[in-house]
Amino acid sequence: MTMNEKINIGDSLRKKRKQENITMKALSDQTGLSIGYLSNVERNITSPTILNLQKICEALHTSLGDLVTRPEENGIVIRAKDRRQTIDENHNIHILTMDFGLSEGYSLLMINDPSSPDSSFEGTEWTHGFTEVGYVVSGRIRVIINSTAYDLELGDSILIRENTPHKVYNLSTTEKVVTYWTRYQKRTDEQ
């Protein structure tokens, strides 16, 4: 992650928290993260892990794609050099965000898991305030939704509805896992 990306995320988090009228203490209570840690993230002193960023986004009713400041070109093309990459060293995954700033709330993430075969997100259960569709570009994954396991491989897709707990595991034994996730989040200003 470059310094500009850290600044964009920290600044965006602070701006979104203030828009939502959420105090630092309330955000700490909702996420289980310390006020000091959250303050350091907002001031770009600390880079949040993907898991912590997810907790913060859920508490602020937003998504990672909405937090990343995009170049104000024309919203039609995202150049490779402008695409935002987030690296979660704890889970050894890379996330490329392709968000065109559409008012409908769509964003596209490419998640690249270069970790060793049979790795997982340590059984982390994810719950998002948005619906997402996953597509396997390479490797094999297992997605567990409401205690039902779905094994997916190259070309397979899966729909995960908003507020549905799920887990994702890497089942590949020889190749890295790359998945695309299209997310749709209803905007709070929609009627």
Automatic annotation (TrEMBL):
The keyword DNA-binding applies. GO terms for cellular component: cytosol. Gene3D superfamilies: Jelly Rolls, lambda repressor-like DNA-binding domains. It holds the Pfam family Cupin_2. The keyword Protein transport does not apply. Keywords: DNA-binding. One of its GO terms (molecular function) is DNA binding. SMART domains: HTH_XRE. Residues 13-67 form the HTH cro/C1-type domain. PANTHER family: HTH-TYPE TRANSCRIPTIONAL REGULATOR (PTHR46797), METHYLPHOSPHONATE SYNTHASE (PTHR46797:SF1). This is Helix-turn-helix domain-containing protein.
